[in-house]
């Protein structure tokens, strides 16, 4: 239930698709009021209001960056929190750096809808409290903290997971570039093994000491079928946020 004593957050959604508009209707669950703008003139008109809050773009490109620069040059809008929804496959290192330089927070499409609106609510609250919303984009996929049992060749415990990869603790020694398969039965339940086993490639390794585990392994998923991606996405949508994720 929405806390009616909480000030409604204001979000301006620029150039939305029908899908984005449908999602915006559900933002009221997070006590957010969403208005849309289809042109730069319309956007400037809405931002003249004294109760401006957060600006959300439905893409990220040169036009987005130029518009943000223009908006923030206006009096009172220098610290305006700006976000952009981007398909995971479009995000690369260059885009992450560019977005950081322009202080535009990227929202990969792998971010569950509810968490997207939560993030904008947090940005609005910070802004209204006079705090600056600092942006540090780090990865192309949304990582969800997840501590469950999993199996590689021995007992393993996951640390976080996204549609793009998984981090896990293990006692096995790996090298960057090593490949394997991980079975996350406790996340995906008693479905067929091929549907709950994901192939991965190791990208980072860190020595740790936590119980029986000696290594923290970061990895990216490789060769996932469309069925496997849908299965994983559906499972992630059902996970409740933890204190670390909120």
Description of the structure:
The longest helix is centred in the middle third of the chain and has 16 residues, at 113-128. It is built from eight helices and twelve strands. The strands form two sheets. Strands 6, 7, 8, 9, 10, 11 and 12 form a seven-stranded antiparallel β-sheet that branches. It has a five-stranded parallel β-sheet with strand order 2-1-3-4-5. The chain is elongated. The protein folds into two domains: 9-128, Response regulator (Rossmann fold), CATH 3.40.50.2300; 144-237, predicted glycosyltransferase like domains (Thrombin, subunit H, Beta Barrel). The chain has helices at 18-25, 40-47, 62-72, 93-101, 113-128, 185-188, 193-196, 226-237, and strands at residues 9-14, 32-37, 54-57, 82-86, 104-108, 144-145, 149-151, 155-161, 165-170, 179-183, 197-210, 213-221. Residues 1-5 and 242-246 have low confidence and may be disordered. Strand 1, helix 1 and strand 2 (32-37) form a beta-alpha-beta unit. The protein has 246 residues and is an alpha/beta fold.
């Amino acid at each position: 239930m929405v806390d009616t004593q909480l000030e409604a957050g204001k979000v301006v959604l620029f150039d939305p698709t029908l899908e984005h508009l449908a999602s915006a209707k559900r933002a009221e669950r997070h006590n957010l009021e969403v208005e849309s703008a289809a042109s730069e003139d319309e956007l400037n008109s809405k931002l003249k209001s004294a109760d401006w809050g957060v600006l959300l773009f439905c893409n990220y490109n040169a036009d987005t960056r130029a518009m943000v620069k223009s908006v923030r040059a206006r009096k009172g809008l220098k610290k305006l929190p700006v976000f952009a929804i981007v398909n995971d496959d479009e995000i690369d290192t260059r885009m992450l750096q560019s977005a950081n330089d322009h202080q535009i927070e990227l929202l990969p499409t792998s971010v569950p809808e509810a968490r997207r609106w939560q993030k904008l609510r947090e940005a609005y609250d910070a802004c209204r409290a006079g705090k600056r919303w600092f942006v540090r984009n780090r990865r192309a996929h949304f990582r969800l903290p997840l501590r469950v049992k999993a199996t590689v060749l021995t007992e393993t415990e996951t640390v976080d997971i996204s549609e793009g990869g998984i981090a896990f603790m293990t006692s096995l020694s790996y090298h960057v570039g090593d490949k394997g398969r991980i079975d996350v039965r406790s996340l995906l339940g008693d479905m067929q093994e091929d549907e709950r086993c994901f192939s991965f490639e190791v990208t980072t390794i860190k020595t740790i000491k936590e119980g029986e585990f000696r290594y923290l392994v970061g990895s990216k998923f490789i060769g996932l079928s469309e069925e496997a991606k849908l299965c994983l996405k559906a499972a992630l949508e059902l996970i409740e946020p933890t204190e670390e994720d909120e």
